[in-house]
User: Fold this.
Amino acid sequence: MSSKLDGKIVSYALTLGENEIDMTQLLDKTIKLTYQNKINCIKCGKETKKSFGQGFCYSCFITAPEADECVLRPERCKAHLGISRDMKWAEEHCLKPHIVYLAVSGGLKVGVTRLSQVPTRWIDQGAERAVRICEVPNRHIAGVIEKYLMNHFGDKTNWKKMVTNESLPEIDLLSEKQKTIGLLPNELKKYALSEDEKVFEFSYPVNEWPQNPGQHDFDKKVEINGKLTGIRGQYLFLDREKVLNVRRFSGYKIQLSSD
Assistant:
């Protein structure tokens, strides 16, 4: 799903083939999503029996730069050394300014994203609020900082806390940011955005939060239906406590109908 931000209000669109559906307009309507038993690789387009890494055929999963190790482990990025599955791709994605950030998304977490992906990355994670800690020239340095801070913060979003909107202790992000900067060694502290006090806030289109959600799996059941009660991150909330992680099924051929 793609997202748009108006102030702090998030809206969503779902791309199915050549069609883009405004999902925010379907809130409180009954929808049905049906898997058509066909998966196409999101990189090469080839039909595949199984999806790897959220949408790739196996060949692309082991060769495409979009599925390289540094996507999940940025500290292992070697593009700055001239090593990549595709250096042209790396120049546009790894050798660009990156942000290290703190976000509140089912808890307080540290993360990394390209500067050009602010604030899209936070919306994809369903963040409630986020603040920038450092700006660095490439993905490797961002990953080194994140890895260092993972000794003090988690780097994963707790999906269940995020989709249930579980109440969290009050978190002063600017105070946490300054504490974080204080933890950095001098060679990394030079990248800190010490004077940046902007806190990004997001409000998601949710009319009803799940209380005990269960994730739908198209590989086990081809259809999910119900009233669309909310959207946050890449999750659709349907009544009867069902949630669907849309990104997990990238490349799946899905039919959508609604009332």
Remarks:
- The longest helix spans residues 139-149.
- The mean pLDDT is 95.
